[in-house]
Design a protein that fits this description.
Length: 271
């Protein structure tokens, strides 16, 4: 029986003396007004509890969400994007990353292996879908030059790292008074460009992974815990894409090739 019919008398006639109106089913007259009021309260509580339980129930996978509806600018490397959970190294003595070794040929090699294949060749169809126009590769018909920004970011961070150890990397010593740079016309300028590029990249990517505080028995205090889970793009997949799209010949930047690719001007909005 629907409950609005069952409880209508109390709601409609709050001041009556408990005598049901003629249209009421006869059995309701056996209930005293007090009993009906009690039932109403009990059911209201049960309903509230049910609603609360429905909304507060935590499904097992509630620590992930779908972001399918997002649109992003085209990149030929989007096909390589896969996600995974990664826990960062904290980077202090108890949890150093393999990159935290002194400047050395071994460290230079590790950095180089992150991005030394980072200039790519893409097809004309792919180039035509880019939000910015890029140039054809002389001597590689139908192919265009491209660099994924992650590799430029890594190159930039590597230069900042070198500037921080000027005794080992004298070319990257930054100083306006003593700036002898055989390979760089101005390392100060290059490093400043890199710092600001990485700032923009971090703000662009806005990592919302959550760093937490946890209780430490041995210190009787809560402490910030850096080794938390992050949603990451699988770096090795993006590396594989770049390795599969390596330039096949030396790129000659002095050759100008005209083409018919026209890209639309976007005004900050994603199409
Ligand atoms: C290098 O660039 C910095 C920053 O733009 C500038 O202040 C400095 O004068 C430049 N140094 C030389 C030697 O050109
Ligand atoms: C932490 O607090 C507990 C309870 O007060 C105490 O027994 C313990 O000695 C404290 N430990 C440290 C390292 O201060
Ligand atoms: C790249 O495209 C954006 C959006 O249309 C535009 O604002 C920007 O000036 C372009 N940059 C180059 C180098 O073409």
């Amino acid at each position: 029986m629907p409950k609005d019919q069952e409880y209508q008398p109390l709601i409609n006639n709050p001041t009556d003396d408990g005598v049901p109106p003629p249209s009421k089913p006869a059995w309701t007259s056996h209930f005293s007004r007090t009993v009906l009021a009690g039932l109403l309260i009990v059911e209201s509580i049960a309903l509230a509890a049910t609603i609360f339980a429905l909304f507060s129930r935590v499904p097992p996978a509630s620590y992930t969400v779908a972001l399918d509806s997002q649109r992003v600018l085209y990149s030929p490397a989007l096909e390589a994007v896969e996600h995974e959970v990664q826990v960062y190294h904290v980077g202090f003595a108890s949890d150093l990353s393999p990159f935290q070794i002194p400047s050395s040929p071994a460290l230079d090699r590790m950095w180089s292996e992150l991005y030394n294949f980072g200039i790519s060749r893409i097809t004309k169809d792919e180039a035509a879908r880019l939000p910015n126009k890029t140039h054809a590769i002389p001597g590689d018909d139908g192919h265009y030059i491209a660099e994924l920004d992650v590799f430029h970011n890594l190159h930039c961070l590597n230069k900042i790292r070198m500037a921080l150890d000027p005794d080992y990397y004298p070319d990257w010593r930054i100083s306006t008074s003593n700036n002898y740079i055989p390979t760089q016309t101005n390392a100060t300028e290059h490093v400043a460009h890199c710092v600001d590029w990485i700032r923009q990249s971090m703000m662009c990517n806005g990592d919302t992974s959550v760093i937490v505080w946890q209780w430490q028995d041995f210190q009787n205090t809560t402490m910030v815990k850096g080794n938390v889970a992050h949603t990451c793009r699988k770096f090795d997949k993006i590396q594989d894409w770049a390795k599969g799209h390596r330039l096949q010949n030396e790129y000659d930047p002095t050759v100008h090739i005209e083409d018919d690719i026209v890209v639309p001007i976007l005004h900050n909005q994603i199409p």
